[in-house]
Specification:
alpha+beta, 2 helices, 163 residues, single chain
Length: 163
């Protein structure tokens, strides 16, 4: 189930994405998206963040881009919702950033996520414009969450339980 429609900006410290609230989104309830579903959008944006880094590393090392690792949302430390739902047709603006010092290629990685629901507004088109938008608008949903990204070769890091 892919919920993210467009990557708007990405760099070493954050990723910005956009999603339209519309069918066939499996999380819709009576044509509306519950605000708590924003966590899944943020988790998918964090997966895109890892995918972008994998593509950059492959390009730098002049190797093929690896298949994506199956990441897992494993914890939500906080979830603050200022709305209860988003109407069909709303544009969701999503920002995720890993906590400092823990954006490795595999590990338990903490993220800070924010999501804004916008109706009929044109999305800012640069990282600077996105940051300016975020500074001027309270997010509808914010969260701190952790994802686990296993090593690409499928082995568990030392000290972790195996399958």
């Amino acid at each position: 189930m892919q919920l993210i429609d467009t990557l708007l900006a990405v760099d070493d410290r954050e990723l910005w994405a956009q999603a339209l609230v519309a069918p066939p989104n499996a999380l819709l309830r009576d044509g509306r998206l519950p605000a708590v579903a924003a966590l899944e959008h943020m988790a998918q944006a964090s997966a895109a963040y890892f995918g972008w880094h994998a593509m950059c590393e492959a390009e730098r090392d002049d190797v093929a881009v690896p298949e994506p690792a199956p990441g897992m949302l494993v914890a939500c430390r906080s979830l603050d919702t200022r709305v209860t739902q988003f109407e069909t047709g709303a544009q969701l603006l999503i920002a995720v950033e890993p906590a400092a010092g823990n954006a490795g290629s595999h590990a338990l990685v903490r993220f800070r996520g924010r999501l804004w629901g916008r109706s009929g507004e044109h999305s800012p088109d640069s990282a600077a414009a996105l940051r300016a938008y975020a500074a001027d608008h309270e997010p509808a949903v914010s969260a701190e969450f952790s994802v686990y990204v296993p090593p690409a070769d499928g082995t568990a890091p030392q000290g972790e339980p195996h399958g």
